[in-house]
Amino acid sequence: MNGVKRRLARCAMVGMTVVLWSAAWGKTAYAQEAPPFPTLLKQSEGAPRAAAIAADVAQAEGLAEQARARPNPSVSVQTENIAGSAPYSRFDAAETTLQINQPFELGGKRSARIAAGQAGVGAAKARGLDARVAYAYDLATGYAVAEIAQRRIELAQDEVGNAEADLRVANAQVGAGKEARLRSLQAETVLQALRADLDLARANYTGALARLSALSGVAQPYTGVSGSVLALFDTSPAVGPVDPGRSTIYRTALAEREAANQRLAYERKRAIPDVTGSLGVRRLEREGANALVVGVSVPLPLFDSNRGNIAAARAEVAGAEARAEVARTEAEAELRGAIAQAEASEARVRAAQASLATAQEGYRLARIAYEGGKAPLIELLTARRNLGLARGVVLDAQAGRFTTYAILARLQGRTITGDPIQ
Q1: Which residues of 31-47 are buried (b: 16+ CB within 10 A; e: fewer)?
Q2: What is the pLDDT of residues 207-227, one digit of tens each?
Q3: Residues 337, 137, 204, 185, Cα dihedral to 10°
């Protein structure tokens, strides 16, 4: 009996081990780092946001295809001279007509409708291109936010490591009677605050990875980023000329203006009456004969001449022209501002890196002086705080430089890597 219990216990232990290893393996199999940004952008073509952009273009193409359709004919059957008084009380004098009616669009109405549909497709594609550029910008920004959060963790870890080393030195100084116990308590307080900052940085990193995963359309959140988008601008890229024609926002406004013009042309054509031709066969029962029936009908534009739709389309054109001009001037102004900001961001990064070098040397000298008993603890803590601030300023400057170049790329209709978006 005891042997059976032992075997059951061993089986349970093995089963539990298998389950735990399977869970751990499954977690590892699904957890993954975000690939480098160019790869991530290509992989995100199937993301929900990208799929929505493609669906809008497909909708416009479907409407353009429908615009090519001609009016359908109609078939009618009509019987006369039946179920009345004599001599029409029966079907002996019935006249039955089978007739086909075909509307004919006049005045180039169909070609105008087709042109309006094609212009609508062009506007949809322009909006889709602008949306893809915006998506590439958002994805790059999300990647940069995750990378910055990762670097802040590294900075916080360095701060904690330096603070722990300073605390050990302070404790040694207190033990040797060279410092009061208050100094080591000050160092411990600073260390606890830095550890709290490290926990906050880790939480921010988790949130940044979750947002990047959502943008990429992956179900399992990324565990990290494997590339660097901040390093793309360590070498200053060419900013290019101020050309608003490269702005997808302006190009979209131009495409929408063209679509509005084509819709106005179509509404004007719609005011032209259509003609309906009729051709049929009539059966005359009394005579036992057949006869053709031919007819033409034209509506009289007494009450509806499409004036309201024409006026609305004309106002749409005026609005589209105004929006296109606004988009041009704003694109030009934003491009000039982005280029100026790019130059300023480069200067800011250089200044921050120079300040960091000074802070590193100041901390090194302060530590040597403190360990030699030539400086108080407060000077060491201040030097280390200045070093941490200088590192943060460098990271902020690099983040600002990235944002500037990312906005410039957005305005020029390309990715942050310089590739145009089709």
Answers
A1: eeebbebeebbeebeeb
A2: 999 999 999 988 888 999 998
A3: -30
